[in-house]
Design brief:
434 Repressor (Amino-terminal Domain); 18 helices; 2 strands
Length: 401
């Protein structure tokens, strides 16, 4: 009976009724094929909104969304004395802790996409210390000890990304190093490989491409034990960026082509529920960065526009990064008017993102535009950006002219 089916089983049944393949459903629903594939095999749970969207596409009359368990919500409470992000508890005490942790992690990810990691970081660390940490050493749990360690590893990696987004590079590196040990204790090789990709990204930002390439290649070796195409593609993209920083355009493009081919494949293995999504837009963003570094400007512009087109308003931060990539490509091609229009759009959402990386890139754009301030659109943008950047970055004062 349908009401005894899992979400994935019912979803596949509805697809068969309508003669839809996974790729066909992905196109019709404007969803990522890889993510749909995981959901159809019950390897990850969809959000309530995602389930309602599939309900409409598959004409399920609410049967799919009814199978999605209640999940924790991350909410912002504003008071007279303090402002804080809180994790609302799940009312159904019969839920497994594993499902609860996955739900909370998904809630953190959704909030992070909208408002950046700067504001969320203390809440994630608090959840690690109070809800996850005590279960690592003794006590009882609803699921295996190994899974608890994998969960802790994934949450710690997330804290690392939020610290990185908040401009705390040293703390981010410490989180990533700890998360690698926790993933090893959890025997989750896919998560380990993902953390190597995260560390590679961090070292690229630190200007250490040799170390970044080494970490990306180590991740690829680790992943051979339990391959996942999307994660392999991510590691190849990190390697490509390191090669771009080394000014090796041919080797960089070979790695990017391999990444694109790998991403199009379906996974033959069970995928860890703790992996972050890496899709076509993610790869386009990394490719754009590599192409900017190797002066392939028209190609970089094309990839940046792809990111903007594929990232909806619910992915505010990644969309902003795509816009910033486009601005950089346009400035390098002397398309200053369009560059200023796009930069102004990012400026309008930057305050809500609490992302030092976005502000840092806006500052870099401002500096690259200063030599062109005699051009009216540039002068207008510089004037508009002046006061916000002064407020966001105390060190920015020393760069003002």
């Amino acid at each position: 009976m349908a009401d005894a089916m899992t979400f994935g089983e019912l979803m596949r049944s509805l697809m068969r009724e309508q003669g839809l393949s996974l790729r066909g459903l992905a196109r019709k629903a404007h969803c990522n094929h890889g993510h749909l594939s995981k959901i159809s095999r019950d390897q990850c749970a969809p959000s309530e909104d995602y389930a309602k969207h599939l309900d409409k596409i598959l004409k399920a009359n609410g049967r799919l969304s009814a199978l999605v368990p209640k999940k924790a919500k991350v909410t912002y409470k504003q008071g007279a004395e303090s402002n804080a992000w809180t994790v609302a508890p799940i009312s159904d005490s019969g839920q497994l802790r594993a499902a609860r942790d996955m739900g909370i992690m998904e809630a953190f990810r959704a909030a992070d996409r909208q408002i950046g990691g700067g504001r969320l970081y203390p809440t994630v660390v608090n959840y690690l210390n109070t809800a996850i940490g005590p279960r690592l050493f003794g006590g009882t749990d609803d699921y295996s000890d190994r899974t608890v360690f994998a969960c802790a590893g994934a949450m710690t990696e997330m804290a690392g990304w939020m610290a990185y987004d908040g401009g705390r590079g040293t703390i981010a590196r410490q989180h990533f190093e700890r998360s690698l040990k926790l993933a090893s204790a959890g025997n989750d090789f896919q998560l380990k490989a993902q953390i190597y990709a995260s560390m590679s990204h961090l070292y690229l930002h630190m200007g250490k491409p040799d170390r970044a390439i080494q970490l990306a290649q180590t991740g690829q070796v680790v992943l051979k034990r339990n391959p996942v195409p999307s994660l392999s593609a991510r590691l190849l993209a990190m390697e490509a960026r390191g090669l771009a920083d080394h000014n090796e355009p041919t080797a960089c493009m070979k790695a990017l082509v391999r990444a694109e081919r790998t991403l199009s494949k379906e996974s033959a293995n069970t995928i860890s529920p703790w992996l972050s999504p890496f899709d076509e837009a993610s790869l386009a963003s990394e490719a754009a960065r590599s192409m900017l570094r190797t002066s392939q400007l028209p190609n970089a512009e094309t990839r940046a526009r792809m990111v903007i087109r594929m990232r909806s308003e619910t992915h505010t931060r990644s969309r902003a990064f795509g816009q910033l990539l486009l601005v950089a490509a346009l400035i390098a091609q002397d398309e200053l008017e369009e560059a200023c229009i796009e930069a102004a759009r990012v400026l309008s959402v930057a305050d809500s993102l609490s992302s030092s990386l976005v502000v840092e890139q806006l500052q870099a754009i401002r500096e690259s535009l200063l030599p062109h301030r005699s051009f009216a659109p540039v002068a207008m943008f510089l004037d508009k950006a002046h006061d916000p950047l002064r407020g966001w970055m105390p060190t920015y004062r020393t760069h003002l002219t």
